[in-house]
Amino acid sequence: MDIKLVFFVLMLAAALLEAKIHLWGDIAFSRKAIINYLFPKDPGIIRVRKPDEVKTEVNNVTTLDFIGLVEKYGYSAEEHYVTTEDGYNLVIHRISGSPLFNSRQRRKVVFLQHGILCTSDCWVLIGAGKDLAFLLADKGYDVWLGNIRGNAYCRSHVKLTPRNSKFWQFSYHEVATRDLPAMIDYVLSYTNQKTLIYIGHSMGTTLFFALLSMKPEYNAKIKLGMLLAPVAIWKKVSVFLEHFRTKMPKIKEFLDSNEIYELGALSARSITVGRTLCSDKAVTQPVCIAIFFILSGSGPAQMNTKALPEILSYYPSGTSLQTVYHYYQNIITQKFQTYDYGYFENYKHYNQTTPLTYNLLKVTAPLVLFYGANDLAALKPNVLETSTRLPNIILLEEIPYKLFTHFDFLWATDAKTLLYDRVIEVLQKFDT
Predict the structure, then answer these.
(1) Is 171 one of the annotated active-site residues of the chain?
(2) Pairing of strands 156-157, 88-97
(3) Where is the signal peptide (predicted)?
(4) Fewer Cβ atoms within 10 Å of its own Cβ: the N or the C terminal residue of the chain?
């Protein structure tokens, strides 16, 4: 992909955003129509279990759910439920059996936690023999996959609905300190085990760091933390993030004024666009690829273009505006700290006027960190700076392939040989 095309798409998006922000007030009717189009209130998606039920029709967009994605390859899967202390209903998935592993011996638990805008589906979109979740199950691990409040599986609360702004009043701090411990405790209780292996990608690593720093007792429940593209300390940002860093306050003001609290929701409309405009036969596919490169890093050789329609049927899958803004605050301050509500609100939340700092010295569980040299979301200098603050790293490793990007951790054409074989090798050596 020509880098000029990447920057052209970036500038075009920025120009449209500028126009939308400055000219919005002049076209009230268009504003409402565009808002409803870009930020639909209802997903309009039907989840099914059988591949022949998947359709892309007007007002009838269907996708396989997690169990359908797994069972079509001959694996067995389960769905479990847990409610957090503040009332969010979460869905946890499990790959409970592999056709390639028949032993009845007690299996070690591995817990996979997705990154921002993902769900558990993101770990199983490429297929058996290729995705990390399937490969772990093939090796005899008991594979559990978490989902967090606000994503496509977790839009339920004991009192609130996603149409209520209070539903979206959370950042990654609440996810880390409430969702993650609730899921870990459930999995350990259900499997009757004392520890588990944690594998997180992107924001899945941020949640891990925040949980263990705020609730250090959870270190004892982590046998090993395997962190892919870890995100905590921001010393540098990509050109894309630097551009939008200056725009973020205006963007947030615009979204708040229009009562938009969720970003990147998975909807029938977004799936239809992904399946039609990003397929191999579509002349618009280069634009889809360019957007991926802007966000993740440019790596044409590992870009799985044939899988794009499938990936975009599940990603992006929704998060709160407050979560994105929390990252923005960390980028501005270059500190890894809790959400900054402002002087008076901070006192209500933290009993002090400033945010709390996540103390990485309290993350004492043994850790393995993998990073990519071409990852624009988890830049190498940021990963290395984060690593200097962690007391128990047993392995810090750059992926040998120099063009490995942020999305390659999930969907690279050769992810198995470039990364997953090494991940499993490290896990098995650690176990023995």
Answers:
(1) no
(2) antiparallel
(3) 1-19
(4) C
**How far apart are the C-alpha atoms of 245 and 251, rounded to whole Å?**
10
pLDDT digits (tens, 9 = 90+) for 101-141: 988 777 899 999 999 999 999 999 999 999 999 999 999 99
CA distance 261 to 322: 8
SS (H, E, C) 150-214: CCCCCCEECCCCCCCHHHHCCCHHHHHHHHHHHHHHHHHHHHCCCCEEEEEECHHHHHHHHHHHH
Dihedral, CA atoms, 32, 321, 84, 80, nearest 10 degrees?
Answer: 70
Per-residue model confidence (pLDDT) at position 29:
54
Task: Report the Cα–Cα distance between both ends of the chain, in Å, rounded.
Answer: 44
In this prediction the pTM is 0.92
Percent of residues in the chain assigned helix, strand, coil, to nearest 5: 45, 15, 35
Which of 65, 142, 375, 408 is labelled catalytic?
Answer: 375
Query: How many CB atoms sit inside 10 A of residue 36's CB?
Result: 10
Is residue 406 annotated as a catalytic residue, yes or no?
Answer: yes
| pLDDT one-digit tens code per residue, 168-211 | 999 999 999 999 999 999 999 999 999 999 999 999 999 999 99
HSE-CB at 53 with a 13 A cutoff on CA atoms is 13
CB atoms near residue 432 (< 10 Å): 5
- Residue 101 burial by Cβ neighbours in a 10 Å radius (0-12, 13-18, 19+): middle
State yes or no: is 375 an active-site residue: yes
